[in-house]
Amino acid sequence: MLGVSMLMAGTSCIKKDNFPGPNASLTGSLFLDGSSSKTTVQTSTGNFNIRLEELSYSATPAPQDIPIKNDGTYENDKLFAGHYRVSIKGGAFWPVAPVETDIRQGSKLDFQMTPYLLLNNFKATLTDTVLALTADLSAPIDGGIPQIIEIDPYVNTTKFVGPGAAIYQFSESQKLPVPSASSPWDWSTLTPAQKSIGVTVTGLIRGRTFFVRLGVKFNNDDKSSNLSEVIQVDVPKQ
Hints:
This protein is mainly beta. About 5% of the residues lie in helices and about 40% in strands. About 30% of the residues are buried.
């Protein structure tokens, strides 16, 4: 009898969890501002995120971040439904005002982003096993741009190429400080010739296919980069 009584007492203390599970979702794309073709931003930077703050239960909620993929999209299908503040964290882009929105199942939110610099006319010229990467820089907003600290080549064997996704011997080891790590460039003082950038990558492996791009790294809080498009380079066997 004592055992049955204790079991009944214990059972009566068990409360049913009536809170719904994380069945809401949020997806979206980050587009280049003013792009009529809906071109997504080029990124492969690990510190570039969508930041969520749920305002349903607190005015000062703990943030949670959704990584932005290299194709400029993001998604999370394990969110709790509620009212959120959504903002951009990191990246080499001009700040975008946070957006407050209700997130439910199938929610979608896009952002228009303006990079500090655009890398135009990107070219990859292969001579034997030496690769010359060139691009022309332009500024959508000409003023207040963070200092430039590096011109970086990124070389990988897959299309996922950029900061944190590159072969060291063809990328990090061959970067170009401008003109040195201790003396960054100010965009406002650059000459037209200096705005045409170039890096040479040597020693590519014969008979291999590589994917390459250029990046301009800034001396901002995240040391983020603006990136060129990706070009495929096929190195002949002979």
